[in-house]
């Protein structure tokens, strides 16, 4: 929230901070494969309301060509059903092109690591709760802090229910596997007594569970 406000202020763009209530939606809390559909529906319904209140006719998202090509994206469907515009995707701009434009415009977000929502860290079939989201956030913050000296870029803590998985840049995997303080910090963030596996970062790795429905139900 703070980063969004600062970014808009630097651009001279008005920033509206509004409350959304995804946690009130059963389909979101239950965390099945269509979780993102329910989340994006809530966000776009709210955005359309705010747009109407301020006299705007259109709502746009930052969906790009890489997102479209990624395959299973129920959130994109929810946005399309609500008439959201996707200018980056329409122009065929993928993630690399978007970053290149950001560098040309000297935007500080040009090299910002991907930042998917915290619910994407929780395995399908494991209920989403404020406590689970909070422990993932604390664990990732601790991991990023402890790995800062190694010039870490990507950090994810995946909540698999009874266990946790830390995903980091490939060159840091070996060091992270043998870092007792790092594992202790993740457990202290809310994963008490949990086994912590370490693997290379893979964007969208939770979607791999969708190929085996029984696996994600057991996660």
H/E topology pattern? HHHHHHHHEEHHEH
The helicity comes to 40-55%
Average pLDDT number: 91
Report the count of strand segments.
Answer: 3
Identify the strand order in the major beta sheet.
Answer: 1-2-3
Number of domains: 2
Count of DSSP H/I helices: 11
User: Low-confidence stretches at least 5 residues in length (pLDDT < 50)?
Assistant: none
User: End-to-end distance, in Å?
Assistant: 31 Å
Multimer state: single chain
Largest sheet: 3 strands, mixed
Please tell me what the overall shape is.
Answer: globular
Protein name: ExsB family transcriptional regulator
InterPro entries: Ni-pincer_cofactor_biosynth (IPR052188), Rossmann-like_a/b/a_fold (IPR014729)
Organism: Phytohabitans houttuyneae
Notes on the structure:
This protein has 219 residues and is mostly helical. It folds into two domains: 110 residues, no CATH class; 101 residues, Alpha-Beta Plaits (2-Layer Sandwich). Strands 1-2-3 form a three-stranded mixed sheet. β1 and β2 form a beta hairpin. α3 packs parallel to α5 and α8 packs antiparallel against α10. The longest helix is centred in the first third of the chain and has 19 residues. The mean pLDDT is 91.
């Amino acid at each position: 929230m703070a980063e969004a406000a600062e970014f808009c202020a630097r651009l001279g763009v008005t920033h509206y901070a509004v409350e959304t209530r995804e946690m009130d939606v059963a389909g979101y809390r239950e965390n099945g494969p269509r979780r993102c559909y329910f989340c994006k529906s809530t966000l776009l319904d709210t955005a359309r309301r705010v747009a109407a209140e301020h006299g705007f006719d259109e709502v746009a998202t930052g969906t790009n060509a890489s997102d479209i090509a990624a395959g299973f994206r129920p959130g994109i469907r929810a946005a399309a059903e609500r008439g959201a515009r996707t200018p980056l995707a329409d122009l065929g701009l993928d993630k690399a092109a978007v970053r290149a434009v950001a560098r040309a415009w000297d935007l500080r977000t040009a090299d910002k690591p991907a930042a998917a929502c915290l619910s994407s860290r929780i395995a399908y079939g494991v209920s989403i709760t404020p406590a689970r989201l909070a422990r993932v956030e604390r664990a990732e913050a601790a991991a990023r802090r402890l790995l800062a000296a190694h010039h870490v870029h990507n950090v994810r803590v995946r909540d698999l229910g009874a266990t946790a998985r830390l995903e980091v840049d490939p060159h840091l995997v070996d060091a992270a596997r043998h870092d007792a303080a790092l594992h202790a910090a993740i457990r202290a963030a809310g994963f008490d007594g949990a086994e912590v596996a370490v693997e290379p970062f893979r964007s969208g790795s939770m979607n791999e569970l969708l190929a085996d429905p029984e696996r994600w139900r057991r996660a």
